[in-house]
Hints:
Blueprint: H1 2-12, H2 17-36, E1 42-45, H3 50-53, H4 58-71, E2 76-81, H5 93-96, E3 102-110, E4 114-124, E5 127-133, H6 147-150
Parallel strand pairs: 1-2, 2-5
Antiparallel strand pairs: 3-4, 4-5
Helix pairs in contact: 1-2
Amino acid sequence: MALCKQIVEVAEGINDPLTLARIQQPAQAAKTVYETNKLGPIVFCTPELGRWSTVGGLGVMVDELSLGLRKLGQEVIVISPYYDRNRKGVTGYLEKDPAGIKYVDNVTVTADTKFTIGVHEGTVGGVKLAFLHHAEIFPQPYADLGPANVTR
Length: 152
């Protein structure tokens, strides 16, 4: 896929009509392969994500995988909690981040009771990000909430 993408990009940058005529068929074939092999939106739902909530290796892996898939031309969406406190105990860390992730709206969901969850969205490296915020449900990464609340 990366090779096909590169062939298409090189062909689009050629201005010489003779050279363009010689590579037109291979470039069109590469473009067809590249455009017809997109998987559609790939969505990751993860408890950790990159610099925002990595505790172990999962957040780094999801961050790098989503960016790599985006560079290959895939549409990627990542959904993750916006914890009330990050692993360092800091609150409001998402608003302070230079990525420009913004609050967009609330959604109401029903589990054992109704919860109103804040939705924050942004795009980093072409990857669409959605963070879900509710202090009681997502107090901190891997919070010790007890068995009844962990399964919520």
